[in-house]
Amino acid sequence: WVSESGVYKQSVQVATMNTTKTVLVSPADSSAEAYAAAEVSCTAQGNNTLTFTAVTKPTANITVNVIHMGV
Fold it and tell me: Is the pLDDT assigned to residue 71 strictly greater than 90?
């Protein structure tokens, strides 16, 4: 996580992701509490990446389920 403009951001690799796909994200059950506590959301998508933003820096690894649809 990198501090940027008062929030924390992290980009992760997601194979076959691009800017035109529809994306659904949800924390894994084991990460739901940490995801909510840090106020994490998916805020950007690019070629093979998703960027997540958190209001507070997560103190544990967070696992997120991703479904992407489209071409």
Answer: no
Q: Is the dihedral of CA 59, 2, 63, 37 positive or negative?
A: positive
- Partners of 46 in the β-ladder: 49
Both structure tokens of 14 = 């997601």
Over the range 27-40, which residues count as b (16 or more CB within 10 Å of their CB) and which as e? Answer: beeebeebbeebeb
Taking only the tens place, the pLDDT of each residue in 11-53 is 999 999 999 999 999 999 999 999 999 999 999 999 999 999 9
Among candidate residues 4, 11, 71, 6, the one with its CA nearest the CA of residue 44 = 11
Report pTM: 0.92
